[in-house]
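Renewal narrative, Specific Aim 1. Our central claim is that a sequence can be written position by position from structural information alone. The example that follows is taken directly from our test logs and has not been curated for this report. It begins with the structure tokens describing the chain, in the order in which they were read.
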């Protein structure tokens, strides 16, 4: 008889294999990213002429502008109420249209799609292109096609949102269990029937979370679309800055910040309410069944964990025959009906006049006909390079500053809890101000050029990186840090040996993500005169040079896709 003792101890005493060499592929990639970040930061400082003296002078000019804006001239309740409502309706209409378009696009783009294979590459191309071009860039195009007002703003929000919603929904579709879909196909169901009956119900909770998160982002974007004439409260902000009424501009900025923060809190509450039942119910039911019957059948537990349509999905104490219109179902249905009504109202607020839509076709044909062939030039490439340097340099400096703020914010590393609370509130306020608003302020204080754009991206990247880093630090295993502290290690020693080795993968991944977002935002800062390729795009559309517009869109898409690919490859090798 063979003893089982060696078998149970084998995983502990087995040879773990050869250790990685100090200069493995992972170490080389990490070192290469660090060297590249330092080199890009130095090149950015040289390009925009940033030095300690110029930074001090710029901060002094900005402080004088802020003193001129104080006190803010807060608008009366009725003055900008219609513009605030228009901003919200633009975000709701754009997000709703994007969700409707993203569902079929995601199913076609998924690798599990069994329909015509030739549809998948075009679908994926649409997802990449719409995600690469920023909302404000689409808004400039649609204002030229449809004219001023909320309609081009909602369409710009919708087109850009399709890229994110369809991308995340495609991942959710590919991760669903393929067995129900295969069973439905074996019974003769068509591809549309399979998607609607077996896949869509399983990915609906993920879709609801994605749409709510995107709505939060779109509300921030809609607040500044009026800068290019696409409706919303941004129109009032642009008018105030253009007329040098800085007290009025400060009041509008305060309104935008409060609006964004309130809606962010509302979005978090709605996401928790919508997503909690689908996540918790199976766990509650399984525990109830085990507690009542005392069964420990692992196979039954596994089947209950994977089954979200049977008794495992019922609330505690609810039998299958008791399913009916309880309070939770009534609230969910009422919420769905209210959402549909709000969406229809938002569509109606866009003034979809058939005459206006039909009159836009000549403009659309002129734009499309003038886009070919694209007109690339040296000035265009230099503007793209300027946007790239601003984004990567600001992301690198922002990641370093964000790490310091994250260490002060995270519960596991903060030296003083009240300081953590103060820094958190400050970061929330800073994140609540759109990047374009920062760019407008720095342009007014420092003048035109990439200097203002770099400072705007630096602030936003710092706040965003600090948020990501703090969340990652609080999710690490605290045992190594506590063990080192208990044996007398100093704070920095416990951090270097107990926290930092765990934190490196999250630091790398989140830093690359911040660089990706900064690159997208840098494209539109030129619209406010803060350097980059945005100014050339606005000028090309204003002068009807659509071939240059097409070249700019292609260049933006290629650069953004290249950065995304680099970040994806780096994360795959480092994380």
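The sequence written for that structure reads:
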């Amino acid at each position: 008889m063979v003893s089982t003792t060696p078998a149970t101890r084998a995983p502990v005493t087995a040879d773990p294999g050869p250790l990685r060499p100090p200069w493995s592929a992972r170490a080389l990639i990490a070192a290469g990213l660090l060297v590249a970040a330092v080199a890009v930061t130095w090149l950015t400082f040289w390009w925009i002429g940033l030095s300690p003296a110029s930074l001090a002078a710029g901060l002094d000019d900005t402080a004088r502008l802020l003193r001129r804006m104080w006190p803010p001239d807060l608008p009366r309740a009725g003055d900008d109420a219609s513009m605030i409502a228009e901003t919200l309706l633009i975000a709701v209409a754009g997000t709703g249209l994007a969700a409707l378009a993203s569902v079929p696009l995601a199913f076609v783009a998924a690798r599990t799609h069994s329909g015509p294979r030739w549809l998948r590459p075009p679908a994926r191309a649409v997802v990449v292109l719409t995600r690469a071009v920023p909302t404000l860039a689409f808004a400039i195009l649609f204002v030229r096609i449809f004219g001023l007002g909320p309609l081009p703003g909602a369409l710009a929000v919708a087109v850009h949102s399709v890229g994110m919603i369809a991308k995340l929904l495609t991942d959710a579709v590919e991760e669903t269990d393929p067995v129900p879909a295969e069973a439905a196909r074996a019974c003769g169901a068509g591809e549309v029937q399979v998607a609607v009956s077996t896949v869509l119900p399983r990915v609906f909770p993920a879709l609801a979370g994605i749409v709510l998160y995107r709505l939060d982002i779109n509300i921030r974007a809609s607040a500044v679309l009026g800068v290019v004439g696409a409706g919303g409260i941004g129109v009032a902000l642009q008018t105030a800055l253009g007329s040098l009424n800085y007290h009025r501009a400060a009041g509008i900025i305060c309104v935008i910040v409060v609006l964004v923060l309130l809606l962010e809190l509302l979005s978090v509450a709605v996401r928790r309410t919508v997503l909690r039942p689908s996540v918790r119910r199976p766990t509650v039911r399984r525990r109830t069944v085990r507690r009542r019957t005392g069964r420990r059948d692992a196979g039954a537990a596994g089947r209950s964990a994977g089954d979200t349509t049977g008794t495992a999905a019922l609330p505690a104490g609810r039998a299958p025959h008791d399913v009916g219109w309880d309070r939770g179902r009534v609230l969910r249905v009422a919420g769905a009906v209210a959402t549909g009504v709000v969406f229809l109202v938002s569509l109606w607020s866009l003034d979809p006049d058939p005459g206006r839509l039909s009159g836009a076709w000549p403009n659309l044909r002129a734009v499309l006909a003038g886009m070919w062939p694209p007109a690339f030039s040296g000035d265009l490439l230099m503007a793209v390079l300027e946007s790239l340097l601003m984004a990567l340099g600001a992301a690198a400096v922002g990641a370093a500053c964000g790490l310091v703020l994250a260490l002060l914010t995270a519960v596991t590393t903060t030296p003083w809890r009240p300081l953590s609370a103060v820094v958190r509130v400050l970061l929330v306020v800073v994140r609540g101000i759109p990047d374009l608003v920062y760019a407008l302020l720095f342009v007014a204080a420092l003048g035109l050029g990439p200097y203002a754009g770099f400072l705007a991206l630096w602030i936003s990247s710092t706040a965003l990186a600090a948020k990501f880093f703090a969340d990652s630090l609080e999710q690490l295993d605290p045992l190594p840090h506590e063990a080192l502290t208990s044996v007398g290690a100093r704070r920095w020693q416990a951090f270097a040996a107990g926290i930092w080795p765990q934190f490196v993968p999250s630091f790398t991944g989140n830093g690359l993500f911040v660089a990706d977002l900064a690159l997208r935002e840098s494209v539109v800062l030129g619209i406010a005169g803060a350097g980059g390729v945005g100014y050339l795009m606005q000028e090309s559309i204003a002068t009807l040079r659509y071939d240059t517009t097409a070249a700019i869109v292609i260049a933006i898409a290629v650069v953004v896709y290249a950065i995304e690919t680099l970040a994806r490859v780096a994360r795959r090798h480092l994380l």
